[in-house]
Amino acid sequence: MKAHDGMYIDGDWRPAVGPDTIAVVNPADEQVIGQVPAGTAEDVDAAVRAARAALPGWAATPPAERAARIAALRDVLAARREEIAETVTAELGSPLGFSQMVHAGVPIAVAGSYAELAASYSFEEKTGNSTVLLEPVGVVGAITPWNYPLHQIVAKVAPALAAGCTVVLKPAEDTPLTAQLFAEAVHEAGVPAGVFNLVTGLGPVAGQALAEHEGVDLVSFTGSTAVGRQIGATAGAAVKRVALELGGKSANVILPSADLAKAVNVGVANVMSNSGQTCSAWTRMLVHRDQYDEAVALAATAAAKYVAGDPHNQASRLGPVVNAKQHSRVRGYIAKGIEEGARVVAGGPDSPHERGYYVTPTVFADVTPSMTIAQEEIFGPVLSILPYEDEDDALRIANGTVYGLAGAVWAADAEEAVAFARRMDTGQVDINGGRFNPLAPFGGYKQSGVGRELGTHGLAEYLQTKSLQF
Ligand code: NAP
Ligand code: MG
Are residues 356 and 382 in the same domain? Predict the structure, then answer.
């Protein structure tokens, strides 16, 4: 894999200040595939200065011209789609077909949506005797995770650029090559120098320096709740805006009138995709007591079809998890589930291969709402199936975690499912297998986060209002 040995700052690749590097590892075979510089507070400072200097010019650029640059960015991403997919597969380990369709395809769609929004959005409103100007928030510090490496970058950078903000990105240490490829695409798209800047590095060093930097006006973070809480506190102390997209423990509620086989099969696919490393995954399946045994048998059969193996082999439906730490963490949760009395009906804690960070797709039955595996985000291919007595019981279980990011409801007709969805404390609900919509606001209730990404709601996060009275 091609890796840059510098930081993308002020429109150029420039050497890092310090000598340290980060080894990028392919999780499928544990081989080092590249080295990127580990940024320091000084690199972050240089990047923030460049973003600050570029802000007045970019903020004053007509929205139609900003839209044209984002459209060009979308076109470059589309032209380099294959390279994006190969890079994500190499550093994340997702099967190549999934990388092409989702890891490359979704960011292209999201960039396209912001090219259109930037051109059509009204950055001015009238109310009574006032004109309200919607102005860019300023310099954005974006901190992203590894699980959807390009999507999470584009979901921050595209709306920020559309709003007229400038950006410094600190991507996850596990997936910096995708971030470098994105910086190349920004450059190729003709985005002016300093509008977008990239500093690779470690979270507690470069990430923390970015979150704390006084030249940053908004910190937009996606990742774990533990780090999100810390970043929220830092931003609060500095009276700085913050957006947090954190973890989830979403419920897939199958009402008795639903097509059980379809709901179970789609539910299993949802959890296994991306090796379970999806913050909005429906990791708890809720089934009526009378249909429980049938659902468990269906889920065990479905999960067994997710053969874990080489992401370049078309027969592999599941890749490894991202790194050694996640590998032991996920298997630790499986062991914990067994210890607390849940019943393994597919998979288990043993790795299916000697090399690579593979986890066997695992399904637990007889899970009770208070078990660790029903409460904590596992971030691996692990599904828990819980029985419920009636709808109120299902709702109590569905809402009974600290999280509220996503969910699903299945019923014979949409109205019945919607009535249940209205009572759920969560930011997104898919009704009878509804498709992903890149324009729908995405974000959490409760400890799943603060703020929304995507569509017009995502754009609004990067704007602040100024009211003029006449
Ligand atoms: P994480 O530590 O929260 O990482 C997210 C991003 O924050 C990365 O860029 C990380 O850098 C950075 N970071 C870490 N510590 C920081 C700090 N003190 N200040 C500023 N930035 C910091 O998540 P993780 O360690 O990769 O994964 C741990 C768990 O988080 C997973 O098992 C999963 O449960 C959850 N997670 C959730 C999501 C989601 O989409 N909601 C995504 C990823 C992970 P480094 O890459 O150098 O750590
Ligand atoms: Mg980390």
Answer: yes
